[in-house]
Each structure stands twice: as structure tokens, then as C-alpha cells.
């Protein structure tokens, strides 16, 4: 059982490092950063308490939102998915990403208190 | 004054009704109510609520006696005072004044001087030949009614002849042109100076027409909207003319009373002419041949008792002059409480101008009685049925006062002691929580021995030490025996459970008692169970300021120590370093950064937007942020659009170049 899990993981890692383009790896690194930030915020909330609750929510939702937007960007600029996004060029995907982020930041900053 | 309490109450009610009705839209319900109202009012004869008392008449004479400076005020004063049966201070002086001030060319001047001189004995105003011509010339259709009146009055006062029929014709013509109240009243006054053979019928009819123009206020007052003076002058003119023409004026009894109320309700007058008009009206109403309103009033309060058994009534006219031939009769005297008739058809006897009746001779019980009296003897009398409320008062005596302390389970015999008024009981009475303190007594009329039930029978306990006072009501049973019982245990809350010596008072009072009683009967020692006794200070601190309430503000929530939050802030920011390291390792670089203006602008704009987010967090509100965001955002968008388009075009060329190169 564990043997197959380890072999799956190693296979995955090998494929990942060879097959994915650099651009996608950049985005992946960004996603990983967002994930870490959100996890650390959650850890603080668990350990110390929810005061101030609105700030915690703001920060956490920003991380979640940014992660989702990053994932959307990654899907849209992946050349393997080109068939699904014929009308959306890479620059357009990036522009959408920026616009959505602006709105997300505006809302979160309003809520952070 | 007339103690017409019931009538006044009805007036107030009817005024309230009228104002209530005024708020109704016209409808059958309001008509019905109006009918009901008139029926209710008509059921009770109207009596005057205002007249001139002797002090009012003096005040009126005082106002008229003020020194005069011109002919008009001289006229008002001299003639007004003569109507009231008085005269000016110095008649000779007045006469000289009239002669000096006379202007023989002016109709008004002649009128004032002539009329005033008529009122003074041995005062003759000299006339010239032209006087008659001037006065006759004023009598025509072209002069005003006032001018005609003054000319006609001057002519008749000076004894000069005049043609009555011409005057009548002129008056009729003028009335048609000047249709106001004052003009018609003046025309009526003019007609009183004409010969009785003249055709006065048409002018007499004007009285009825004018009376129809009077305003009815609440069924109590009848007056012209022009005011008091116009109403008083109308009354004078109507009665003077009716006397002159020997025809009864077309005014109903109720209307006469309402006119009396209007004219004599004002007791201080603004001007000499107003005082003059009131004096003339008073004289007309007290001595005309048809209607004389009569006033029945009591001398002092309307109370009789054993010490004062006689009821005194005054019967006067509106000038408070006693009526020469009048007889007073009690039609019925009815007790208010029991509605039984005590007296019927009993005459008053006249002594020194005052009507007397010994009411106590009919041995009435104490209380209030409704009298209906009638004035007879003169067919001219108006409002001669009057309602009065008379009080019969008496003295009360407390008898058979027995005080006792009764055991609750009644195993020990009661100890009763009798106390006589006004002495105090010899020993004190002790009652603790197992006993009741009881008091029995009777209240009787001192003169007749009949049992009484006055309004106020109180038993008062007063603690001398603490100043506490507790009052109870003693109630009579069916046999009119008063009983009071104090259950010590039950009533301890009223005493605040303070044991001690209480002084006992009996208080008896009533409107019909001449001797209210405050009697210190005994001392009572009350013992309450001590464990329930609160501090005596309680009653004292009831009205002292209470302790201050401090406002507790909301406690701020507990925050974690700064060290912890600082550590975690650093921890949360650390993945950013990790990101930079990863990007570096992946080979992300900015080598392809083109320095075109649009890309520079885009990056600057984007940085500005992030900066704006920070500023929003610290300083701005949403509206300001949106404003700035719109500006910066649109610039960034345009720049970004350009940049990305350029990039797209550039990468397309790049890719096609690569393909081309690899293809070849």
C-alpha cells in the first residue's frame, strides 16, 4: 500500500519537473506561497484566538481568493487547455486576473478594519 | 350673586356642545342633536347670569363722572348719569361749559348741547334764528341717519317744531340705503322723538328684522357682531320706541334674558360712549312698560342652620334697585339627595326690602335643597322663575364612643372603655399581633338626634417619635353605627412594623357640618413582631438623593501579548521570501522588460493601486477610494491594454519567426 503511494508520488514529481513549462511553475510557486500564508494565518487563529475576528476573516479570505484566481490563471494559460479557451489569449487571462485581484483587494481592505 | 350653579353648569355644557357640534359636518345627526339641545334648554327657563350689582353701578357712574373736555363726552356723561338717577358733580359748571362750547352752526354740536342741557335742571341753550333752518336742512334723504337723528333730537329738545311725516319718509329712504345695524338702531331712536300720530309702523317692523340679525352664543348670549355698544343701543332703542308707540316689542322672554346677559356681562368699560350705551340700556330695561327682567339673589351664602334659620333673598331689577311691587313664593323645595319635597307653595315675608323665609321651621334634614322660587306681582316681569340651591347645615355630636382591645381568638374577654367627647381616654391601649384594636361610635345631629353619615370620618394614628402618620377610614354599618377595627398583624406594612405609642385622633368633616371634629381620643401602644422591623431611617431617606450609578463602559477584549502577534506577523510574511527564492530558482527574470511608455505606465499604475489599498486601510473611506481607484484604474487599464497587445503582437512575430527559422 505505502509502496504504491510512494511510487505514485515519485512518478508525479518526476513528471511535474519535466513536463510542466517554466511559466506554469512560476504560477505554481506563487500558489504555494499563497497557500502557506493562508495556512499560517489559520494556525495563528487556532492557537491564539479569533480576536480580531474581522481581520482574520479578511486575511484568510484574501488568501483563499488569491489562490482561486491563481488557479484560474494557471488553467487559462496552460497550452494543453487551449482548445477550451479559444477566445481568451494569455494576455487577456492575465488582465482578467489583475482586474479580479483589484476587486478582491478592495473588498478585503474594506473588511480588514 | 345668584348661586345658579346648575344653570351655569348647563351653560358650560351647552357651549361645549355647540363647539363640539361645530366640528361636525352638516348631517342629520347634528340636526338631531341641535333639536335635543333646544329641548333640553327649553325645559328649563332661562334666568340672567349677569346684571349690574351696586358696586358695578357705582363703577359705571364713576366712569361717566370723569371730567369731560368736549361736547360729546359732556353729553355722554350728563345724559348717562341722568339715566342712572345721578347727576354731574357741578351742574352749573357743566351748563356753562355747554354754552361755551356750543357751535351754533354745527348739527352735532347743537345735538350734544341740547340733549345735555335737557338733562340738567334750569339749563337753557340759546338758539338763533338760523338754528332751526340749519337743523331742518339736515333732515333730508341726503344726510346720513345719524345726522337726521341728531337734528331731530336737537329740534325736539329745543322745543322747535318739526314735520314728523317728512322725517319718517327720510328715515325710510335712508334705511334702504344704509342697511347696517347702527344705522337702523339710530333710525329707531329717531322715531322715538316723533309725534305719536306719525306712521311709525314701518319703522317698528325694523325691530324684528334687527333682532333676527343677533348672534346666539351657546343659548346664553345674544349680541351683534358689531359689539357691546351696538347691542346696548339696540336694546335702548327698541324699548324706548315700543314705549313711545305703545306696542309690545317682538322679543321673546328668552331673547330678552340673553340680551341682558350680553349687555351686562362686561363690568369695566373701555370708553365713555360704551358706558353711556350700557347706562341707557339699563335704564330702558328697568323701567319700560313691557319687559322688566328680575334678578333674585341671596344675601350672603345660601345657607341655613339652627343658629340662622332664616333664608334672605333680594329681588331687584338689573340695576340692583329693589322692585316696588313684588311677591316671592317658594314653589317647591326638594332635597337633592332623597328627591323628597320638603316645602311647597310657601310665601316669603318682606321685611326692610328683604324677603325672608324661616326654612328651619319645616325641620329639614341637613344637606342640599333645590328651591324653585317665583316672583309675582307685576305682569312685566321676565325670568321670574328662579332655581336656587340652599344648604342646610347642622352640628354633629359623637356619642357612644367605645374603645376596646379584642383578642383574635376571642378567648380573653374584651375590655371596653367608653370615652366622652372632648376628653381623652385615661389609660393607653395595648395591642400586639394577637389582638385587634376596635372602636365603635355613633355620629348624630346635635339638634335633632338623627344619625348622620358625613363625608369624612377618619381615624389617624400618629407616632410622635418617628413622625409616622397612618390614616384609616371608619365606615358605618347598616344601622349607621361606625365601626373601626385595626388588625395589628394584617396592617403592619402600613406602620412599617414600627412598634411604639401612637396617638389616636378621630377626624369628622362634611360640607354641611358647622363643627368639624378633630378629637384626640386615646393613646394606643402597638407591638409588631420585631424581626420584620426595618430601620426607621427608610422613610426619611425616601426623598434623599439615591446613590450614584457609575456607568460601566464596555470592557475591551483581551488581546494576546504583543510578542506573540509580532512573531506571527513575521511568520506570515516569511513565505514571501520563499516565493522570491523559488522564482529565482525557476529562472523567472525581467530581462524581457521593454521600456515602452505604456508598460512603464502600467507598472507604475499597478503599484499606485496597491499603494492606494494601503492608504485606504489607514486613511480613506470607500467613496474616496473608489474615486481614486477609478482614475488610477482606468489609466492602468489603458496602459496595460496597450502593453499586453504589444506583447501579444511581439510574441506572435517571435513565434512565427522561430517557426520560420525552424521550418527552413
UniProtKB/TrEMBL annotation, chain A:
GO terms for biological process, alphabetical: protein N-linked glycosylation
One GO term describing the cellular component: oligosaccharyltransferase complex
Query: According to its UniProt record, in which pathway does this protein act?
Result: Protein modification; protein glycosylation
Cellular location(s): Endoplasmic reticulum membrane
Would the keyword Amino-acid biosynthesis turn up in this protein's UniProt record?
no
User: What is the membrane topology noted in the UniProt record heading this document?
Assistant: Multi-pass membrane protein
A single GO molecular function, which one?
A: transferase activity
UniProt keyword annotations, A-Z: Endoplasmic reticulum, Membrane, Transferase, Transmembrane, Transmembrane helix
In Swiss-Prot or TrEMBL terms, this protein is called Dolichyl-diphosphooligosaccharide--protein glycosyltransferase subunit DAD1
- Organism (species): Oncorhynchus mykiss
The gene is DAD1
Automatic annotation (TrEMBL), chain B:
Residues of the Ribophorin II second domain: 294-392
Domain Ribophorin II third stretches:
400-526
Tell whether Transmembrane helix is among the UniProt keywords: yes
Q: Which GO terms describe its biological process?
A: protein N-linked glycosylation
Location in or out of the cell? Endoplasmic reticulum membrane
Q: Topology relative to the membrane, per the entry? A: Multi-pass membrane protein
Q: Transmembrane residues, as ranges?
A: 568-588, 600-619, 625-645
Pathway(s) it belongs to: Protein modification; protein glycosylation
Keywords attached to this entry: Endoplasmic reticulum, Membrane, Signal, Transmembrane, Transmembrane helix
What's any one GO cellular component for it?
oligosaccharyltransferase complex
Domain Ribophorin II N-terminal, chain residue ranges per copy: 52-286
Q: What does this protein do?
A: Subunit of the oligosaccharyl transferase (OST) complex that catalyzes the initial transfer of a defined glycan (Glc(3)Man(9)GlcNAc(2) in eukaryotes) from the lipid carrier dolichol-pyrophosphate to an asparagine residue within an Asn-X-Ser/Thr consensus motif in nascent polypeptide chains, the first step in protein N-glycosylation. N-glycosylation occurs cotranslationally and the complex associates with the Sec61 complex at the channel-forming translocon complex that mediates protein translocation across the endoplasmic reticulum (ER). All subunits are required for a maximal enzyme activity.
- Family note: Belongs to the SWP1 family.
Alphabetized PANTHER family for the sequence: DOLICHYL-DIPHOSPHOOLIGOSACCHARIDE--PROTEIN GLYCOSYLTRANSFERASE SUBUNIT 2, RIBOPHORIN II
User: What is this protein's name?
Assistant: Dolichyl-diphosphooligosaccharide--protein glycosyltransferase subunit 2
Query: Its encoding gene is what?
Result: LOC110494616
Amino acid at each position: 500500500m505505502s509502496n504504491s503511494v510512494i511510487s505514485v508520488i515519485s512518478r508525479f514529481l518526476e513528471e511535474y519537473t519535466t513536463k510542466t513549462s517554466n511559466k506554469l511553475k512560476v504560477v505554481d510557486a506563487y500558489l504555494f506561497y499563497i497557500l502557506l500564508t493562508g495556512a499560517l494565518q489559520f494556525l495563528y487563529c487556532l492557537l491564539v484566538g479569533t480576536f480580531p475576528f474581522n481581520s482574520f476573516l479578511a486575511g484568510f479570505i484574501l488568501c483563499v481568493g488569491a489562490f482561486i484566481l491563481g488557479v484560474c490563471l494557471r488553467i487559462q494559460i496552460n497550452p494543453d487547455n487551449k482548445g477550451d479557451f479559444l477566445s481568451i489569449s494569455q494576455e487577456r487571462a492575465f488582465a482578467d486576473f489583475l482586474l479580479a485581484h483589484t476587486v478582491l483587494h478592495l473588498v478585503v481592505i474594506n473588511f480588514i478594519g | 350673586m345668584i348661586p345658579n350653579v346648575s344653570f351655569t353648569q348647563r351653560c358650560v355644557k351647552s357651549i361645549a356642545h355647540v363647539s363640539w357640534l361645530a366640528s361636525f359636518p352638516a348631517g342629520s345627526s347634528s340636526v338631531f342633536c341641535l333639536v335635543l339641545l333646544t329641548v333640553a334648554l327649553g325645559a328649563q327657563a332661562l334666568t340672567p347670569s349677569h346684571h349690574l350689582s351696586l358696586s358695578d353701578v357705582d363703577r359705571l357712574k364713576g366712569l361717566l363722572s370723569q371730567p369731560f373736555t368736549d361736547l360729546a363726552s359732556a353729553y355722554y356723561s350728563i345724559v348717562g348719569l341722568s339715566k342712572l338717577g345721578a347727576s354731574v358733580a357741578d351742574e352749573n359748571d357743566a351748563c356753562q361749559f355747554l354754552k361755551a362750547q356750543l357751535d351754533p352752526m354745527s348739527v352735532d354740536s347743537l345735538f350734544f348741547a341740547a340733549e345735555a342741557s335737557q338733562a340738567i335742571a334750569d339749563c337753557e341753550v340759546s338758539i338763533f334764528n338760523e338754528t332751526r333752518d340749519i337743523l331742518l336742512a339736515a333732515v333730508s334723504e341726503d344726510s346720513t341717519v345719524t345726522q337726521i337723528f341728531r337734528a331731530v333730537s336737537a329740534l325736539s329738545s329745543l322745543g322747535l317744531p318739526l314735520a314728523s311725516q317728512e322725517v319718517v319718509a327720510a328715515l325710510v329712504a335712508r334705511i334702504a340705503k344704509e342697511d347696517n345695524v347702527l344705522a337702523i338702531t339710530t333710525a329707531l331712536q329717531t322715531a322715538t322723538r316723533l309725534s305719536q300720530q306719525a306712521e311709525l309702523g314701518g319703522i317698528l317692523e325694523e325691530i324684528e328684522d334687527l333682532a333676527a340679525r343677533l348672534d346666539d352664543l351657546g343659548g346664553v348670549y345674544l349680541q351683534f357682531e358689531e359689539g357691546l355698544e351696538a347691542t346696548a343701543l339696540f336694546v335702548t332703542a327698541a324699548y324706548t320706541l315700543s314705549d313711545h308707540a305703545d306696542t309690545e316689542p317682538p322679543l321673546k322672554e328668552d331673547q330678552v334674558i340673553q340680551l341682558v346677559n350680553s349687555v351686562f356681562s362686561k363690568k369695566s368699560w373701555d370708553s365713555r360712549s360704551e358706558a353711556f350705551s350700557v347706562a341707557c340700556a339699563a335704564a330702558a330695561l328697568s323701567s319700560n312698560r313691557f319687559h322688566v327682567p328680575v334678578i333674585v339673589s341671596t344675601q350672603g351664602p345660601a345657607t341655613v342652620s339652627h343658629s340662622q334659620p332664616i333664608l334672605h333673598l333680594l329681588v331687584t331689577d338689573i340695576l340692583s334697585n329693589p322692585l316696588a311691587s313684588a311677591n316671592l313664593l317658594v314653589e317647591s323645595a326638594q332635597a337633592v339627595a332623597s328627591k323628597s319635597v320638603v316645602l311647597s307653595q310657601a310665601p316669603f315675608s318682606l321685611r326692610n326690602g328683604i324677603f325672608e323665609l324661616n326654612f328651619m321651621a319645616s325641620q329639614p334634614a341637613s344637606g342640599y335643597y333645590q328651591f324653585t322660587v317665583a316672583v309675582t306681582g307685576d305682569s312685566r316681569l321676565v325670568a321670574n322663575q328662579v332655581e336656587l340651591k340652599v344648604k342646610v347645615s347642622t352640628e354633629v355630636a359623637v356619642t357612644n364612643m367605645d374603645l376596646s382591645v379584642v383578642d383574635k381568638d376571642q378567648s380573653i374577654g374584651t375590655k371596653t372603655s367608653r370615652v366622652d367627647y372632648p376628653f381623652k381616654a385615661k389609660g393607653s391601649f395595648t395591642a400586639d399581633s394577637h389582638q385587634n384594636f376596635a372602636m365603635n361610635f355613633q355620629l348624630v345631629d346635635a339638634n335633632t338626634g338623627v344619625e348622620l353619615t358625613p363625608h369624612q370620618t377618619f381615624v389617624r394614628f400618629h407616632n410622635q417619635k418617628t413622625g409616622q402618620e397612618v390614616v384609616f377610614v371608619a365606615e358605618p354599618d347598616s344601622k349607621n353605627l361606625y365601626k373601626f377595627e385595626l388588625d395589628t398583624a394584617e396592617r403592619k406594612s402600613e406602620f412599617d412594623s414600627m412598634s411604639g405609642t401612637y396617638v389616636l385622633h378621630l377626624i369628622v368633616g362634611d360640607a354641611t357640618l358647622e363643627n368639624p371634629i378633630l378629637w384626640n381620643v386615646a393613646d394606643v401602644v402597638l407591638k409588631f413582631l420585631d424581626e420584620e422591623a426595618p430601620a426607621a431611617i427608610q422613610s426619611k431617606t425616601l426623598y434623599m438623593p439615591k446613590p450614584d450609578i457609575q456607568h460601566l463602559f464596555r470592557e475591551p477584549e483581551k488581546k494576546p501579548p504583543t510578542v506573540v502577534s509580532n512573531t506571527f506577523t513575521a511568520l506570515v510574511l516569511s513565505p514571501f521570501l520563499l516565493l522570491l527564492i523559488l522564482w529565482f530558482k525557476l529562472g523567472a527574470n525581467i530581462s524581457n522588460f521593454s521600456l515602452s511608455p505604456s508598460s512603464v505606465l502600467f507598472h507604475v499604475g499597478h503599484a499606485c493601486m496597491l499603494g492606494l489599498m494601503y492608504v485606504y486601510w489607514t486613511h480613506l473611506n470607500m467613496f474616496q477610494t473608489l474615486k481614486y481607484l477609478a482614475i488610477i484604474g482606468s489609466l492602468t487599464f489603458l496602459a496595460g491594454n496597450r502593453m499586453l497587445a504589444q506583447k501579444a503582437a511581439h510574441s506572435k512575430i517571435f513565434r512565427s519567426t522561430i517557426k520560420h527559422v525552424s521550418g527552413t
